[in-house]
TrEMBL record:
CDD domains: DPM1_like_bac (cd04187). This is Glycosyltransferase. PANTHER family: PROPHAGE BACTOPRENOL GLUCOSYL TRANSFERASE HOMOLOG, UNDECAPRENYL-PHOSPHATE 4-DEOXY-4-FORMAMIDO-L-ARABINOSE TRANSFERASE-RELATED. It is a multi-pass membrane protein. Gene3D superfamilies: Spore Coat Polysaccharide Biosynthesis Protein SpsA, Chain A. GO terms for molecular function: glycosyltransferase activity.
Length: 308
């Protein structure tokens, strides 16, 4: 029998949330107009999340569980679910209930109208002010730097047609940014405004440090503008230094005066040294990602699968 819908949900230490998550999913799934599978990807949880998922899978055959051998990260866990999804439409959502399962029928309605990708445009986020500002800054910076049209404020919560899923499976890069790859795939896409809810229990799993890593993955995977910026800034600095050098020679040999004191020279030296280190770091980020790709290691390893 053909599976109509696949839900892919990454789980990391969500033992307090999984029962409520399944209760809300269990209320939505019967209203859908086709067979549905729910794929939970346990991303190396060290609490009882896997035990709870195993018990649910034993009671509900539509639940499938992928247990990764360790914590590979949010994006890789989603990729594992995408690789195993059988549905004609695949819905991605986080497992902390900030993405409301009740929005799934709205996604499906737009998909049935002919859209291949339906993504949530998150509004009224409930995170702390610094984190909300970080998210807004990231989305706008990424939109500015990327060579493709990546929607603003659109995260993982989305529905993708099987055509898009098959396209994503052909993108085996190691440092994944699923939202960017989804935009890169193209096809007909539309956004739906969804109010971002509170986390149901516990502390958010996405720390500022993890947000920075995701931002780096998103920017360096879809843009070479930082490298071009290094070139342009280098040209500006070299030209400026040459002009200042000519002016300095004029002051010394024509006017017989010192152009700038040693303090200005020392400040300029430290400033230029900082600029060089920043751009060495940028180049290192690109080289590191090339290194990851060359090794060709799998971006996730499965320890066990249930109900597949």
């Amino acid at each position: 029998m053909t599976t109509a819908y696949s839900l892919v949900i990454p789980i990391f230490n969500e033992e307090a949330i999984i029962p409520e998550l399944w209760n809300r999913l269990g209320a939505v799934i019967p209203t859908l107009d086709g067979d549905t599978e729910v794929i939970f990807v346990n991303d190396g949880s060290y609490d009882s999340s896997l035990d709870i998922l195993t018990q649910l899978a034993q009671q509900h055959p539509e639940i499938k569980v992928i247990a990764l051998s360790r914590n590979f990260g949010h994006q890789c866990a989603i990729a594992a679910g995408i690789d195993h999804a059988q549905g004609q439409a695949v819905i991605l959502m986080d497992g902390d209930l900030q993405d409301p399962p009740e929005a799934i029928p709205t996604f499906i309605s737009h998909w049935q109208q002919g859209y291949h990708v339906v993504y949530a445009i998150r509004t009224k986020r409930k995170e702390s002010l610094p984190k909300r500002l970080a998210f807004k800054t990231f989305y706008r910076l990424h939109h500015l730097l990327s060579g493709i049209d990546i929607p603003l404020d659109a995260g993982i919560f989305s529905l993708m047609d099987r055509k898009v899923i098959l396209a994503l499976r052909q993108m085996p890069e190691r440092n994944k940014y699923i939202s960017g790859l989804r935009a890169y795939a193209g096809f007909r896409q539309t956004g739906v405004i969804i109010e971002r809810g509170h986390r149901y229990s516990g502390e958010p799993r996405v720390t500022i440090l993890k947000l920075f890593k995701l931002a780096f993955d998103g920017i360096f995977a879809f843009s070479n503008i930082p490298l071009k910026l290094a070139t342009y800034l280098g040209l500006v600095c070299a030209t400026s230094s040459f002009i200042l050098g000519i002016i300095g020679l004029y002051y010394k040999f024509i006017l017989g005066r010192v152009f700038l004191s040693w303090a200005y020279g020392l400040t300029t030296t430290f400033f230029m040294g900082g600029i060089q280190l920043i751009f060495l770091g940028i180049i290192g980020e690109y080289i590191g990602r090339i290194y990851d790709e060359v090794k060709q290691r799998p971006y996730y390893i499965i320890a066990d699968k249930i109900n597949f």
